[in-house]
Amino acid sequence: MAFVPGDYGIPKDHAVDLALPPVDDGSPNPNQADQPVTDQVTKPLVVDEDSASVAVPQTVKESCGPVRNGGQVCFGRPLKKPYKIPKAAEDSKGAQELTAADDSGGAAGIADWCDDDELVARTLVCENREVPVYYRKDGEVKATVYFIFQRLIELDGVNSFEEYLTVKPVSIPADFAQIQLGIYEHLCDSPCTPVESDPSAWKGQPTWTAGDMHTAYIASAYTWDNSTEGQTFEFKPDVQINGIADPVGDETIQTVGYQWSLGGSSGFDVIRCDTLTGTASAGCVVPNYAPTYTFNAAKYPQAAAHAWLIQHEMPNSPGLESADTPLYYLPGGRDGDNRDEICDESGWARTNYDPDAMNSTSDDPNCDEFSFNATYNSGGMPADLGGLNPVSSGSECAQTFAQMDNGTIHLRNLPGTVPSFNEVCGRSAISGVQNQGSMAAFSAGCSYHVDEPEPSRT
User: What one-character DSSP code corresponds to residue 84?
Assistant: First the structure.
């Protein structure tokens, strides 16, 4: 059987002793590009407080058009779930639950989960908003229309990304002869450039009459300049929607504008793009999303068991998804200095390893450190450089090694050491094949091409 984190409890008054399953060389590696969908905002670590931007609370207001002959149309503040018609718009039966047309629009086939709510994956951001449209006459609300606006951002290109804006009507009362929506323009800071689609690109006409429930969506693109290596950019792509309303009984056609960024912040509205991979073709990610790296515990049980030990038995639980304690990426680990700090004693792994626990006679022992050296969570990362768990030597970490015992490999505490289970790091003398193989997909399967503390979990 494969090593499954959580199968082994360790009494706090005993030494470490994890019995590991046999190596399953045929176990397929997890698809690291298959990242989970979440609504949890996990912001990157701020190391330099002086350069940190201060978040200013945003007041979401109505967006109103001009008053014409006493009439005015406004996009109201987005409603909160569960969506209900506000008190002022109730009929005699009381509040009504709102349900939209059963159509995923532009998200279909790209992110089928997009209808669920405000969700994000590594390169996909989806947000749904229930937005009322009020018609006022002489300051009094006479009629209300409800739409669901759905916006999906897909980071699918090396120097571009796509937006799919879907409009789903919820309620079009007879008070309106017609309502027409359209894209006024897109916004994005340089060197990001919106590429506006022709209005004919709408799938389903963005025009509705009373009782009409069809869905309409349009795809638009953004490009960014990736011609220079070593650059990082933060973009906040934005869209302005234009509305034209024809209220029944009003001789004047009313217009109104709605800007996405002024309707509230999801925490996922910023996109980071860079060319830091050594080529001018890197790409973009959602910086407030923490990707997950999955160990192949069946194929590399020694490395998986060591990570499990530190994550589950130490108070800081580094990189443990269930504890919401992400690792923060540090490319290169200070050019190896973090690793030197933890595996600091000359030949530490070779001095403390069991040859019988190696994968083969040609397998060399490795000092496996956890948290990884290429993170701010590493015990070797100094506090004055932003380190979260600094120690002065690897001897302050929990020290273990892989040992063969009667045909079974165990992960055990190093002879002469007994962990206190208050350590913030670990080092272990294990198989080099196991150690290196367990992390081989780290750069190959995920887009870890950023130069600041990026959150991730294991």
Answer: B
Numbers of helices and strands, H then E, in the chain:
5, 22
Model confidence, pTM: 0.82
Q: What Å distances lie between residue 203 and 165, 215, 348, CA to CA? A: 10, 8, 64
410 by Cβ neighbours in 10 Å (0-12 / 13-18 / 19+) ranks as buried
CA distance 62 to 53: 27
Question: Which amino acid appears at position 137 of this protein?
Answer: K
- E runs forming strands in 23-159: 63-64, 71-75, 119-121, 124-137, 140-154
Radius of gyration of the chain, Cα coordinates, nearest whole angstrom: 28
Give, as one character, the DSSP assignment of residue 60: P
Structure tokens of 167?
Answer: 């409009």
DSSP 259: E
Q: Is-contact 310 318, C-beta < 8 A?
A: yes
Backbone angles phi, psi at 171, to 5 degrees: -155, 120
Q: How many CB atoms are closer than 10 A to CB 420? A: 8
Greatest C-alpha distance within the chain:
91
Q: Is 331 exposed, middle or buried (0-12, 13-18, 19+ CB in 10 A)?
A: middle
Separation between Cα atoms, residue 110 and residue 417, nearest integer Å: 52
* Segments in 177-319 forming alpha helices (H): 301-313
Pairing state between β 232-235 and 238-247: unpaired
The pair phi, psi for residue 357, each rounded to 5°, is -95, 5
Q: Structure tokens of 40? A: 């949890």
Q: What is the pLDDT of residues 189-245, one digit of tens each?
A: 999 999 999 999 999 999 999 989 999 999 999 999 988 888 899 999 999 999 999
Q: Which two tokens stand for residue 451?
A: 């130069």
CB-based contact 405:411 (threshold 8 Å)? no
Q: Which of 172, 179, 171 is nearest to 98 (CA)?
A: 171
Q: 77-90 b/e with 16+ CB inside 10 Å = b?
A: bbbeeebbbeeebe
Task: List residues bridging with 411 in a β-sheet.
Answer: 18, 402
pLDDT in tens, 230-253: 889 999 999 999 999 998 888 778
What CA–CA distance (Å, rounded) separates 354 from 418? Answer: 18
In degrees, rounded to 5, the angle at the alpha carbon of residue 425 between the alpha carbons of residues 424 and 428 is 150
**Token pair for 117:** 């709510």
Tell me 262's DSSP state: G
CB atoms within 10 A of CB 8: 18
CA distance 162 to 34: 20
